[in-house]
Design a protein that fits this description.
The chain has two domains: about 1-105 and about 260-295, Rossmann fold, CATH 3.40.50.2300; about 105-235, 3-Layer(aba) Sandwich (Rossmann fold), CATH 3.40.50.2300. Strands 5-4-6-7-8-9-10 form a seven-stranded mixed sheet, with helices on both faces. It has helices spanning about 5-20, 40-55, 65-80, 105-120, 135-150, 165-175, 190-200, 215-220, 240-255, 265-285, 290-295, and strands spanning about 60, 85, 100, 125-130, 150-160, 180-185, 205-210, 230-235, 320-325, 330-335. It is α/β, with parallel strands linked by helices. It is built from eleven helices and ten strands.
């Protein structure tokens, strides 16, 4: 996930600067503490314990894996520290005190799978993802959706982190003859797989669909390896909207002409900071339960997602489907 870190940090810095420029939250200026969650679920939990117990932060806004989220939530719940969880996730019940601003697997999968079936006549799907809770639960939801559409899941594969040689997996995919490979490979894992997929000659005859490839990963995959790659997301930097145009203008004004490339994971942290500010202002409190009661009923100042001028903290956003074109995405189906 470190591939997204520069844009995530920059987005959070911008959000805090905007809030402080406008008077802070509850009349207090904000300080941003940036922490590396590390390589494991345990290191993420330890980082959460440190910032809550030693740094004595008032709230945590974080992008960590779904498996780490539960341990982080447990550490913060013990200390009554609110936890704003920003990336997309598998869905279902959240841990106590957690507010999520990202899309769920079902939010992202349904429009993309339906579009591929209707517009590309896709009926055979192969599922592949890394070995932890988000891909596993997302695969289960995707399987049900695909079957409900009258289509077939012709294979699936669970890939451990760190695999560099995908020859055996690509052979399985080729033999299964899918119309679409649906993947939940995270960060650098997606880069390695998609490069190998194209090098094996599969990109000329099999479509790819993902809900976790952003502009940063697309750039790393490379133009030569991204043919017929479709992605569903609540945010693309190429999205044409008033909210996004204003956000990009502020982002480039603050960081210059060559900032870290903005993407859905960075934007979600930007939104997470503004979300918690809106909830705290509405509740007049930093208690997690007070904030939870204001979700969907409190205004937040800014976002880059959606098309409405009035933004509600914790509200759902439209889902967009895009196709990779070179090093960027072209949005083809707003939903």
């Amino acid at each position: 996930m470190g591939i997204w870190a520069p844009s995530c940090e920059a987005s959070a810095i911008l959000a805090v600067a905007e809030l402080n420029y406008n008077g802070g939250v509850l009349g207090r200026q904000l300080d941003l503490v940036v922490v590396n969650a590390g390589m494991t679920d345990a290191s993420a939990a330890a980082a959460a314990a440190t910032v809550a117990g030693i740094d004595r932060v008032d709230v945590v806004v974080a992008m960590v894996t779904s498996s780490a989220r539960k341990l982080v939530a447990r550490e913060l719940h013990r200390r009554c520290v609110p936890f704003i969880y920003t990336p997309q996730f598998e869905g279902g019940a959240l841990d106590p005190g957690v507010v999520a601003v990202g899309e769920t697997a079902e939010d992202l999968l349904r429009p993309g799978l339906s579009w591929l079936a209707d517009e590309k006549n896709a009926s055979r799907f192969f599922l592949v993802g890394n070995d932890y809770v988000w891909p596993l639960q997302s695969m289960t939801r995707a399987r049900h959706m695909i079957c409900d559409m009258g289509c077939l899941v012709v294979g699936n594969a669970i890939v451990p982190f760190g695999v560099e040689d995908h020859e055996q997996l690509l052979r399985r995919i080729s033999q299964a003859r899918p119309h679409v490979v649906v993947s939940w490979l995270l960060g650098q894992e997606a880069v390695v797989f998609n490069r190998a997929f194209a090098a094996a000659g599969l990109s000329s005859r099999i479509l790819r669909f993902s809900t976790a490839i952003d502009e940063t990963i697309l750039y790393a995959i490379g133009e030569a390896c991204s043919a017929d790659l479709y992605v569903a997301s609540g945010y693309f930097s190429s999205l044409r909207s008033h909210n996004n145009a204003a956000f990009l203008e502020r982002y480039h004004t603050y960081f210059g002409d060559t900032p870290p490339p903005i993407n859905a994971f960075g934007e979600s942290l930007y939104e997470g900071v503004h979300c918690v500010a809106g909830l705290v202002e509405a509740a007049g409190s930093l208690h997690p339960w007070d904030l939870r009661r204001k979700v969907g009923r409190a205004a937040q100042e800014r976002t880059a997602r959606g098309f409405k001028n009035q933004i509600v903290a914790g509200a759902a956003h439209p889902i967009h489907l895009a196709i990779a074109e070179g090093h960027d995405f072209r949005v083809i189906a707003p939903r």
